Amino acid sequence: MQIAIDGPAGSGKSTIAKLVATKLGFIYCDTGAMYRTATVMAKQKGIDYGDEAAIMAALRGLDITFKPSPDGQLVFMAGQDVTLAIRQEETTNNVSQVSALPKVREEMVRRQREIAANHDIVMDGRDIGTTVLPDAEVKIYMVASVATRAQRRYKENVEKGIMTPVAKLEEEIAERDRKDSTRAVSPLRKAADAVEIDSSHMTIDDEVQTIIDIVNKKRLKTQN
Question: Where does the Cytidylate kinase domain lie (predicted)?
Answer without folding.
Answer: 3-216
